[in-house]
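Consider the tokenized backbone below.
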């Protein structure tokens, strides 16, 4: 494994969290994170090539124990993220299915047809959707056209192709949703931090579970505090708060 990152998994009481975090950052940690769900494990991350601190230094903080020290490396996940896309149910009414799926729709379900070969998005009242992929504009128009039977002539969202510095993007926003490759989320994080309201929420999804550590570090460094991680199969979604 070349240029591995280092992760410490710690049992760290909340009472000493601030002091211990300050020490860890002074020792070269690039990010720290506490799990939102029990047992509320605490993690510290160190960059490649960095000599980790002496574990004995943790003794200065009452009740702190190093549970595990492990390494993880960056990998090329692009091919994995482009693997097959099948139909799936959303809530009690909808069925999302790809354009090529001609199987019958179960009774009581409304089909939302998407073309995963291109960028696509959904929205609701007063929603602004954008993508930096030139294919996104036609894809969003196609999405509206494919689902005209559900929209009854309404436009579900405003959309454009561009970046967060586009004049159409006006903040601050209380909620941001980024359902896209982790690499793109990382590129957009500085802009999302600028347009997010203080305490605003970011839902980052479409992330492979195997890249959870990398995603959490990126969010913390980008100005967002992770609150919760939800996993379904090999995918995760992260709820984070603008700090």
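A designed sequence for it:
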């Amino acid at each position: 494994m070349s240029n591995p990152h280092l992760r410490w998994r710690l049992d760290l009481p909340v009472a000493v969290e601030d002091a211990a975090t300050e020490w860890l950052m002074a020792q070269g940690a690039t990010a720290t994170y506490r799990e939102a769900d029990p047992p509320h494990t605490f993690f510290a991350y160190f960059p490649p090539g960095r000599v980790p601190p002496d574990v004995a230094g943790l003794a200065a903080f009452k009740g702190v124990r190093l549970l595990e020290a492990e390494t993880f490396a960056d990998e090329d996940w692009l091919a994995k993220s482009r693997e097959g896309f099948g139909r799936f149910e959303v809530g009690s009414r909808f069925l999302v299915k790809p354009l090529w799926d001609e199987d019958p729709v179960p009774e009581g379900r409304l089909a939302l047809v998407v073309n995963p070969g291109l960028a696509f998005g959904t929205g609701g009242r007063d929603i602004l959707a954008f993508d930096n992929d030139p294919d996104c504009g036609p894809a969003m128009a196609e999405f509206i056209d494919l689902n005209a039977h559900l929209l009854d002539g309404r436009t579900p969202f405003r959309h454009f192709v561009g970046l967060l510095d586009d004049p159409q993007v006006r903040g601050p926003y209380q909620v941001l949703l980024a359902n896209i490759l982790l690499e793109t989320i990382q590129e957009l994080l500085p802009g999302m931090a600028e347009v997010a309201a203080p305490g605003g929420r970011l839902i980052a999804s479409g992330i492979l579970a195997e890249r959870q550590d990398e995603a959490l570090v990126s969010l913390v460094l980008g100005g967002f505090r992770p609150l919760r991680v939800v996993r379904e199969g090999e995918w995760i979604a992260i709820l984070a708060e603008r700090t």
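The longest helix spans residues 182-195.
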